[in-house]
Design goal:
mainly beta, Immunoglobulin-like, four-stranded mixed beta sheet, four-stranded antiparallel beta sheet, 41% strand, globular
C-alpha cells in the first residue's frame, strides 16, 4: 500500500515540473488563410500563391491553404500555373502584388477572386 502511494506522489510531483502545452498567450506569428472555396474564379487551373516573390502554395478549386507568418508586411501575388488540365498555360498576366500587413496573433482569411485586372484577394469572414 505504501509503495503505490509513493509512486502516485512521485508521478504527481513529476507532472508539476513539466510545463503544460498551451496555445494561449503571446504568439509571435500571424495566420494567413487563402481560400478558393467559392466559384469566383472560372477556371480549373491551379493558382500559385507567391509570398514575397517565392512560390509558397498551390490552390485548386474548393481548397484553401494557410501560412504561419511573422508579423509585418508581406507581398502576395496570385498567378495561374501550368498543370494537368488542358488550357492552363498562363500566357501574359498582370503581375501585380498585394501588400498585407499582418499583426501578431491575428488570423486573416482571404478568398481568391478575379476581375478585369486579374486575380486578387478579398477579405473573407472566418465563419468558425
Amino acid at each position: 500500500m505504501i509503495r503505490p502511494a509513493l509512486s502516485l506522489v512521485g508521478l504527481l510531483a513529476a507532472l508539476t515540473v513539466v510545463p503544460a502545452a498551451s496555445a494561449a498567450g503571446n504568439s509571435d506569428y500571424s495566420v494567413l488563410i487563402i481560400s478558393r472555396e467559392r466559384l469566383e474564379v472560372a477556371t480549373t487551373c491551379e493558382i500559385g500563391v507567391y509570398l514575397n516573390d517565392q512560390l509558397s502554395g498551390r490552390v485548386f478549386q474548393e481548397q484553401s491553404t494557410s501560412f504561419n507568418l511573422p508579423p509585418g508586411p508581406v507581398d502576395i501575388r496570385l498567378r495561374l500555373l501550368p498543370g494537368q488540365a488542358p488550357g492552363c498555360n498562363p500566357g501574359l498576366e498582370n503581375q501585380h502584388n498585394q501588400r498585407l500587413t499582418l499583426q501578431a496573433g491575428q488570423i486573416n482569411k482571404y478568398r481568391i477572386a478575379m476581375d478585369h485586372s486579374g486575380l486578387h484577394l478579398t477579405r473573407a469572414s472566418l465563419d468558425y
